[in-house]
Write a structure and sequence with these properties.
Elongation Factor Tu (Ef-tu), domain 3; six-stranded mixed β-sheet; alpha+beta; globular; about 350 residues; Gyrase A, domain 2; 20 strands; single chain; six-stranded antiparallel barrel; 8 helices
């Protein structure tokens, strides 16, 4: 039976089309994916992301321990800032991608993927060090993502503040209540992490102020247009951050961390595959994960993500390809239910805002 977020009844009352996602009963859409996608790109949308996990780490050894457990350089964070990072296995594969928020000198909040809460918690607990307190408080909190060009205008109306303009900032609004300027859509916006019993009030206030309820469907098309990876699709335990094109978020020079030796060896040997962006040239049905990517009829890989881009009006996808075939301008084919369509390797991201 699917788990429910504190906003489940609100989603149903608003006509949300509910689906099972990572064991959670979540809205995939309300008014429609295209309509909701447009709202985020041009106005403001609100997402329930309460299915994601909240881990708290503190104690005099917190920073040292997170440096060992995570791939990015936690020590580079100042209080009130955040970074994208990875929890890796010893082979350098991605257990999970996550956001680390440094709340104070030796106090951190980790936001992890819904499907990986239990596995992440078990892995971290297994490696827990002295002088570190680790708490999985996912059931105590809800989280909302308010995204789009008008999101700051709505924040001023509802919260009485204008969020920081810089990305990767986090500030405490009240006890157990944080605002963070991270996001998964490519638009300006912020997230609220709040006690579970306050989520309904925040959701209602933002919707009444003008935020459009949005589901997982447009969240997926928005993130794919930006080439943001999805754990379980583009990222997995047998894929490294280097292969995923996310080496910028791996601090090989910081010292030892779990998976480092494997990544160093992989880098020295040369990558055998890269996560590559593909634009469908031909008019084709929507591209989905696990469609074959071909070169002159020979299967090279399968798509990891795919969709019809609402902003661009053509099919887009990502796949792990050999480096020599991941160069911009390379022409390939994608097999959609027995029929092939031409695709072109393009530079990431697919969607670029007009300046």
């Amino acid at each position: 039976m699917s788990q429910k977020t504190p906003l489940n009844e609100i989603h149903r009352a608003a006509g949300g089309r509910m689906v099972d996602f990572a064991g959670w009963d979540m809205p995939v859409q309300y008014s429609g994916i295209l309509d909701e996608h447009k709202a985020v790109r041009e106005g403001c949308g609100i997402f329930d992301i309460s299915h994601m996990g909240e881990f708290f780490v503190k104690g005099p050894g917190a920073t040292k321990w997170l440096q060992l457990m995570l791939a990015n350089d936690v020590d580079a964070l100042q209080a009130g800032t955040s970074q994208y990072s990875f929890l890796l296995n010893k082979e350098g594969g991605i257990i999970d991608d996550l956001i680390v928020y440094r709340l104070a000198e030796e106090e951190y909040l980790l936001i992890v993927n819904a499907s990986m809460i239990e596995e992440d918690a078990a892995w971290l607990t297994l490696h827990l060090a002295e002088a570190v307190t680790f708490e999985n408080r996912s059931s105590d909190f809800a989280a909302l993502a308010i995204q789009g060009p008008k999101s700051y205008e709505l924040a001023e109306k509802v919260l009485g503040i204008v969020p920081p303009t810089e990305r990767n900032r986090v500030l405490q609004l009240a006890p157990n209540q944080w605002l963070a300027t991270t996001g998964y859509t490519g638009e300006v916006g912020f997230e609220l992490v709040v006690p579970a019993d306050t989520a309904e009030a925040f959701w209602t206030q933002f919707v009444e102020a003008g935020a459009k309820p949005c589901g997982l469907g447009c969240r997926d098309t928005l993130r794919l247009e930006m080439c943001y990876p999805l754990n379980g699709s583009d990222l997995a335990a047998d894929v490294s951050p280097l292969e995923a094109g996310l080496g910028f978020f791996v601090a090989l020079g910081k010292g030892d961390f779990i998976g480092r030796d494997a990544l160093v060896a992989q880098k020295e040997a040369g990558l055998k595959r890269k996560l590559t962006a593909l634009q469908v040239i031909d008019k084709a049905p929507p591209i989905r994960p696990h469609y074959s990517v071909l070169k002159q009829g020979l299967k090279l890989a399968e798509t990891t993500s795919g969709a019809l881009s609402p902003s661009l009006g053509y099919g887009i996808a990502m796949a792990y390809l050999p480096p020599e075939l991941s160069r911009e301008g390379t022409e390939l084919e994608i097999d959609v239910r027995g029929k092939t369509y031409r695709a072109l390797v393009v530079r990431k991201p697919f969607y670029k805002k007009l300046s």
